[in-house]
Design a protein that fits this description.
Keywords: Cell membrane, Membrane, Transmembrane, Transmembrane helix, Transport. The protein is mainly alpha-helical. It is about 80% helix and about 0% strand. The chain folds into three domains: about 35 residues; about 180 residues, no CATH class; about 55 residues. The chain is globular, with a radius of gyration of 22 Å.
């Protein structure tokens, strides 16, 4: 009798798991359908596909770092006490690794919900600056499309996009839109797939593997070649120093301070550089 009940319970649990995965797949299909209707009402032409391919080609090497960080974050979600289902929802709905890692210790200590939201806002306040810089390129789009682009934006995509089009006089072209999509779409898939792998397979990874350090090295290999001007070098140097000094600060405020300090240093250095060029 007990054995039959255990078998029945196992079947119900298995059925529930199947239904849950089917629901997630249906949600993903719905999102893809909305994206298709919003952005791909007609199949993109050859030029659009080439521009998308340029973005994909530029971001390919960065996907190594993105995937590593996603995998590490997925492991951290489960180790913090979240169930696999809760961790899956969080990684799909909160596309921000720094916000996730900031929220986890606060959730573990049962901190107020408002404090968790404020902490997540502070560590991601840099995206306000990113959005303001990208606004001239996409302001001609409807607000749902801009909201879509904003949700899927990432640090790597912003750096690569501004590195190519930041000084462009023409803003708002189809080339720029499809190039940006070629950056953000692969990053989203790489992050979420690797994060899901971390959630469901992270327990198989030996604790001796220093994945966090590997992710840092991968990011450095991407960012350092992009530093080609004095303002960019000053921005990186000041942000790095502030981030290092601000490690003990609560709520990861050192990260927010590093972003603000790096931007200020870069802008100041650029203005001084222009002033020196104008002076006889």
């Amino acid at each position: 009798m007990v054995a039959e009940r255990l078998r029945a319970t196992a079947r119900i649990s298995s059925l529930g798991s199947v239904l849950w995965h089917a629901l997630r797949l249906a949600m993903l299909c719905k999102v893809c359908a909305v994206v298709k209707n919003r952005f791909f009402s007609s199949f993109p032409g050859a030029q659009a596909r080439r521009d998308f391919g340029k973005g994909l080609g530029d971001v390919l090497t960065a996907l190594v770092a993105v995937s590593t960080w996603g995998f590490v974050t997925g492991i951290a979600l489960v180790k913090s006490g979240l169930t696999e289902s809760m961790a899956t929802l969080m990684t799909l709905l909160v596309y921000a690794g720094s916000a996730q890692l900031t929220a986890l210790p606060l959730m573990e200590t049962l901190s107020p919900l408002l404090l968790i939201f404020v902490a997540g806002l502070l560590v991601n306040i840099r995206f306000l600056i990113f959005g303001a810089a990208l606004q001239p390129f996409f302001r001609h789009l409807s607000w749902p499309r801009r909201l879509f682009l904003g949700f899927f934006s990432s640090d790597i995509a912003f750096v690569l996009f501004m590195g190519r089009y930041g000084d462009s006089k023409l803003k708002g072209s189809g080339e720029q839109l499809w190039y940006f999509l070629g950056l953000i779409v692969p990053c989203w898939f790489a992050w979420n797939l690797s994060s899901l792998l971390g959630i469901y397979l992270g327990g198989l990874v030996p604790a001796s593997w220093s994945l966090e350090f590997a992710a840092i090295l991968a990011l450095m290999a991407i960012i350092i070649p992009l530093v080609q001007t004095r303002p960019m070098a000053m921005c990186l140097l000041v942000a790095g120093l502030i981030a290092w000094a601000g490690q003990p600060w609560p709520l990861r405020l050192g990260l927010a301070a590093a972003v603000a300090g790096g931007i200020f240093a870069g802008v100041l250095s650029e203005r001084l550089q222009r002033k020196n060029r104008k002076s006889p």
